[in-house]
Amino acid sequence: MRSEKIKKREQKRKLRISFITTALLACAVILVSCGSVDDSKDVKKYEASVTTAPTYVVTTAEKSESTSEETTTQTEQETSQSKTTTTAKKTDKTTSSATSGNTGKKTESSSGSTASKTGQATSQPTQQSTVTTAPKTDPTTTPGATTTSTSATTQSPAPILPRVDSREFLMQQLKEDRLRTAAKQIMDGVQAGQANIAIGDGLLKTSEIDSMMPFISMLEAESYVTPLSYHYMYNGSYVTGLKIDNYSKPHDKYLSEKSAVEAVVKKIVADANASCADQYEKVLYFHDYIVKNCVYDLNTGVDGASAYGCLIGGRAVCEGYAKAMMLLCSEAGIQCTLVIGDIERGNTTIGHMWDLINIDGVWTHVDVTWDDVVVNDENLCCYSYMGLTDSEIVADHIIKPLGILNTFKAQSSAMNYHIKKGLYIKSEKEIAAVMEKAVENAVASGTQTVTLKCADGQTYAKLCEVIRNEIYEYTARAAEKTGGKAAGNVNFFGQDGLNTAVIILRY
């Protein structure tokens, strides 16, 4: 019986490898843009051609096998669109010559880069440990991906804040008024589905076009309608207009999707307003909602890079995740912006996108995509990337803001999930007490994930040792004390750069 299971797993593994190989070969074609310049001495206006298309990057999902079950932590694979006016040289199937970052969790078509995600992946060596045991009596499996309900509260709901216009807030981050004017002219044309968009003289430099077009994609977060290919006209060093060769979708479809997303966003935010006690709990509510209702999928095309793919289609990549979070926060009156960056995997740089959110005056990084972990085909929610500072996020993320934008600094850890929820371990002496309480809460509620964060590497290493050697004693005591079920088997993975351990309980 066991040999048959092993044989089936091997067949599945071979099918995955075959799919991945095919996908990587398909990635081999990278769009090359060409310029067309009239050499006539008396001609001052020129035209350059830019063509963009998604480049899909597929990496093998990391997995650990145990004697009783297979655990897979889904690797985020994200698509990117490269926009360049020079010939792209392709040296690696997983990199594109000109990217400007974004990611998702399950399908990605982003404003300008390719990204990869894994619930346990870090740019530093990842410590992964697996603790398993065969079911002892007749264990039952918790259906679906359950997480602790952090949004529900017996306190009075938080005051409803005035809505933040996400587009206007993003526009204010542009460094100069001329850039804001140019962005508005382009965005107005894109929203109207225009084939020819005029740009005022002296507003947008030709050297800024590669940053401006990904920024336009950030503005239209609801539905991905960024031009897939376009020409721009320029006079001297300034762009004077765009000729859109083709949009990513018909204009009427864009409008209907945008309207549908706006309605869904209002509904989700209304639910959060009715049940959450403060801004932090609202952001956590949105975080959990996205994880529970969206699947990371690389095969959704451009929809995956939009809030439409995430909130309505239920399938997206990092860009779709990040845009959905931005729209939800903005509707709730919470300032939120998008962060473009990279993830490094060996010699490969992959684009990624996540959120920077202002919660009660504190700017903090939130990467919903990387908090969406897949185990045995179930979406599980962890909180390793909920409330990180600049110095913490760069443990495995590279921040690469667009040159035309001003950026915010995240320097306070006040909004870190583990600190706010009593899951932060300052020293080895605190490990037993913090872990005991965390496991008790999980077992009592049937929650499958426990995320713990340590103040330093030494405490983190000791925590991992305790989890490996004593986790079943902890779950047994918790079951006896709370009346819940002890875990039949347990998996956990460590995130070395963050000093965070994620425990996955199977009841």
Secondary-structure map:
Layout: H1 2-26, E1 35-36, E2 45-51, E3 54-56, E4 62-65, E5 70-73, E6 75-77, E7 79-81, E8 104-105, E9 116-118, E10 128-131, H2 166-171, H3 177-191, E11 196-198, E12 204-205, H4 209-219, E13 227-235, E14 238-247, H5 251-275, H6 279-293, E15 295-296, H7 307-313, E16 315-317, H8 318-331, E17 336-345, E18 348-359, E19 362-366, E20 372-375, E21 378-381, E22 386-388, H9 390-393, E23 398-399, H10 417-420, E24 424-425, H11 431-445, E25 449-454, H12 457-482, E26 489-495, E27 500-506
Parallel strand pairs: 15-16, 24-25
Antiparallel strand pairs: 1-2, 2-13, 3-7, 4-5, 6-9, 10-26, 11-14, 12-14, 13-14, 17-18, 17-23, 18-19, 19-22, 20-21, 25-27, 26-27
3D structure, described in words:
Helix content is 33%, strand content 25%. About 27% of the residues have low confidence. The chain starts with a helix and ends with a strand. Helix 5 crosses helix 8 and helix 6 packs antiparallel against helix 8. The chain has 507 residues and is an alpha+beta fold. The chain has twelve helices and 27 strands. The longest helix is centred in the C-terminal third of the chain and has 26 residues. Strands 1, 2, 11, 12, 13 and 14 form a six-stranded antiparallel sheet that branches.
